[in-house]
């Protein structure tokens, strides 16, 4: 089995996600900027936990030195490139996100990732983090294609274009392909039960990717009845 088999197992779900109204509206310029700001703040918090998970994978016992180094590089890259983009947006908007809580789907996703990375075998942790790389590259390419098709017929905020350029760009694609290669090496040697678990984690995290954009489109909040209770 290969990493491509993981992708194929979630292909129908991903084909729905690539047409998510939130993403399409980013390209055609109709997305509510408040929804995008909400997304950026939540995604910045997600990236902190995602980077931490990559570093934890790199620290797993028995991981080859070269792989460990690369996983730590992936973790640093999530902060140096992806989160830096988000921080630049917040600076442009004069937003301070300190004290903002993770919203329900953010917490659901980060908690699941952390649990798999800290309690399950290394290969399963790699598979759980794969959708964040691969799905983002895929939708980025889809959005680039739609943007090219629309041409100058629509105008969009510069932040939307910067996001599309990041995730549809060659630099991010190289990072993703390197991570896929790491996962692929484990897929080729894993036994049937391990592959089954890897596939389940991959599919669930693809669902959580979709739900993350659902959350932003709705600007989901914790129930108001709970807002005054810590």
TrEMBL record:
SUPFAM superfamilies per record: Heme oxygenase-like
Gene3D superfamilies recorded: Heme oxygenase-like
InterPro entries documented for this protein: Haem_Oase-like_multi-hlx, Thiaminase-2/PQQC, Thiamine_Salvage_TenA
Residues annotated as domain Thiaminase-2/PQQC: 13-217
GO cellular component term of the entry, any: cytosol
UniProt xrefs under Pfam families: TENA_THI-4
GO biological process, alphabetically ordered: thiamine metabolic process
Name this polypeptide is given: Thiaminase-2/PQQC domain-containing protein
Species of provenance: Entomoneis paludosa
């Amino acid at each position: 089995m290969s990493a491509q088999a993981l992708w194929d197992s979630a292909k129908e779900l991903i084909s729905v996600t690539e047409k998510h109204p939130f993403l399409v509206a980013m390209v055609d310029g109709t997305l509510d900027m408040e929804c995008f700001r909400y997304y950026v703040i939540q995604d910045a918090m997600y990236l902190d936990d995602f980077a931490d998970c990559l570093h934890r994978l790199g620290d797993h016992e028995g991981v080859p030195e070269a792989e460990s180094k690369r996983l730590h590089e992936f973790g640093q890259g999530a902060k140096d490139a992806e989160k830096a983009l988000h921080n630049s947006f917040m600076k442009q908007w004069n937003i301070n996100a300190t004290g903002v809580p993770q919203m329900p789907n953010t917490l659901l996703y980060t908690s699941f990732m952390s649990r798999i990375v800290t309690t399950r075998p290394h290969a399963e942790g790699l598979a759980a983090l794969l959708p964040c790389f691969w799905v983002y590259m895929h939708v980025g390419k889809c959005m680039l294609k739609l943007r090219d098709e629309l041409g100058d017929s629509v105008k969009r905020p510069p932040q939307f274009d910067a996001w599309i350029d990041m995730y549809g760009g060659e630099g991010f694609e190289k990072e993703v392909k390197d991570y896929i290669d790491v996962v692929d090496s484990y897929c080729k040697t894993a036994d049937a039960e391990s592959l089954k678990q890897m596939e389940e984690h991959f599919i669930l995290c693809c669902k959580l990717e979709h739900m993350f954009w659902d959350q932003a489109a709705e600007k989901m909040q914790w129930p108001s009845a709970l807002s005054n209770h810590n």
